[in-house]
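Q: For a teaching session next week I want to show students how multiple molecules come together into a single three-dimensional assembly. I've collected the sequence lines for a complex. Could you give me the predicted structure tokens for the whole thing so I can convert them for display?
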Amino acid sequence: MEYVSPEGLRLDGRRPMEMRQLRAEIGAVAKADGSAVFEMGNTKVIAAVYGPREVQNRSQQMNDQALVRCEYSMANFSTGDRRRKPKGDRRSTEISLVIRQSMEACILTHLMPRSQIDIFVQVLQADGGTRSACINAATLALADAGIPMRDLVTSCSAGYLNTTPLLDLNYVEDSAGGPDVTVGILSKLDNVTLLQMDAKLPMDTFENVMQLAIEGCKAVANYIREVLQENTKQLEYRRGV
Amino acid sequence: MRGIQLSLNQTQKPRLERALERLESLSSKSNPNASVTVADTIPVNYEDGVLKGHGTSELDGQVVATLCGVVERVNKLVYVRALRARYKPEVGDIIVGRVMEVAPKRWRLEINFSQDAVLMLSSMNLPDGVQRRRTAVDELNMRTIFEENDVICAEVRGFQHDGSLHLQARSQKYGKLERGQLLTISPYLVKRRKQHFHHLEQYGIDLVLGCNGFIWVGEHVEAKDDMVEDQANKSEQQNSKSTSSPNLEEQEQTYTPLEIRQNICRTANAVRVLSNLGFNITVEAIMETVNLSSTLNLDIHEMLGAEFCVLTAEREAERRSMLTKRKG
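A: Of course. Below is the structure for the complete assembly, covering every listed component.
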């Protein structure tokens, strides 16, 4: 199948190095300490953060740092065919782990000893790149909850189809079976916190694809920063003195 | 959803926007560009000897924010004041909390902090007002003082060596809160002040603005210090009490007049409106909102509607512009 037309357009009309439209909204869940909705094109994810709060299971309590937990789930209505997915299947366990690890890399856990932070992410609409969207939503929700962080983690995926590196794959491109590289970075520190790839890629093309994904992450970071800045300003001026 | 979630009609929407714009222009004059987000660099003019406070860290010799908030500078200290975050206790704060667990010699309270706070049996006055060592009998009777899910008002005593937060309730004004409503708002909206207990006499209600963002609106109870009373006198009273029918007395105790209940609801709704708009919560602001609603002859439930929300925003913009004019 042809994923990039001779004119250089992809199936959904984007250029190979073009991202889908981003949209973020802070404060989607009233009772959570922090929450956000993050959209990348048709992929839509909601994230809620609770905590730092008292550790529920005393045996997991750590005296020098906070416990970070993460739960990923996909709404039944999120995919094209509506199906009930068992909670805690292999895929969602894996993604929960991935999100937790990349979030732990940026949260300053040592500032909140003997407490726990819960992150819940749910996919409302799945159209490829749910992993990246979840990480971006979780970052926003953590920042909204006022949890101290080293830097903002942002994530973006890139692929390689028809000998062209493609940024931010959607569902059709994702299911083509080509390589799919998901990268998560700390944009200010320039550290990679997440790198996943299925399928194989030659070394030199891999570098190109990864570079493209990193550029995508930086674009996401800029957008997230704008949203947060706007939100902080609004809270401050409304409060007054 | 948090914030303003109302369906505004065509006239209300621009009015609200205008009011909020006005608020924005008022605040931007006084404090421009002080807000930072995570990983923003904080400009420091004098490089040597900067003290990095909360919400900051160092990266390649630069001061970097780790929170979203407002940069504050006190002499050489630079810190970031977080806006939306959990409560950060300070010694002497008056807080409202909910009992989560009755443990040996202590109660554990949920106070919107990163851990549960501890109220020791020994750091509170017993209901009989006698100063003595707490015995095993007292320990067994702890549930007669506070049970699980009771709402309690107390004062922050300090951090223990093991990092746990201890509270105290050594006065009659502290203790169980009954017959009212508990409201949970963001703690950054409550400012620390001299007075956190308020008796609104014209409404016959008590208002406790907990520093942790828990706000109590309840029927006024007369705080009487039992310790001052004569011991012999009291035992006599108790005897006379036991003779009268307890059932009737109980009924009388649990009865709150309708008017006071309405006042409680009205005040609680005022707090809700203000916190939805993200305005600072003070007694003055609450009272003004309550007065505004009663002068407009609004029903209590109408206070949560779109029109009242817009009116409150407009009035707040008016008030703040008056304040700045007076200063100028």
